[in-house]
Design brief:
Layout: E1 2-11, E2 18-26, H1 28-44, H2 52-57, H3 74-92, E3 103-111, H4 112-118, H5 122-128, H6 132-151, E4 160-165, H7 172-185, H8 187-190
Parallel strand pairs: 1-4
Antiparallel strand pairs: 1-2, 2-3
Length: 196
Amino acid sequence: MMFGCYLDESFDMKQSGFFVVGGLIGRGVAFFELERNWEALLRKHKLSYFKASECESGKGQFAKYITDPKNITLKERSRLSSISHEFCRLIGNPVEYDDRAFFALFGTAVVQKDFYELIRKPKARAVLGDSPYRLAYDLAMIQAAWSMKQLGKDTARPDCVSYVCDQDEEHRDIAQPAYLELRRKNRNAGKYMCSY
């Protein structure tokens, strides 16, 4: 059976923070229902996107729900939390009538300070590359592949995962070749890794 895996990154612009890649793994119906209901929530709250950090801080599109971002009242905090919980509940239960339509959420993080210190050594740089981007994505993709191994361990034919990522401007030209190389070099995990 084919599973979809949607990945995205988040990072601190300073090289002292974390570089995180998180993802959702699920089957087609769950993603279809999530997208359909997500769009309905966006329309309900008159939003063009949902970003948790903006909702938490009352910034960006969520500024319309607060008077003073430095002094968010309890009522305003409650409203922002309520909106955030609606989106979170939807991820946890995208299809009301089908308990097999689920998502697995996962993530991996690279401590940027440690990464940049380590790659000062030529051998480490040769293995890890110049940026935590590739390492974090590789770890997340392998993690998703091993999830497929766990899900399909009692079946004759293994489940596999197909990856979808946004086109990061800095890395879009190397992402596809890097994925193919990752799959080739990791044959055990590679048999659970389908398309990118």
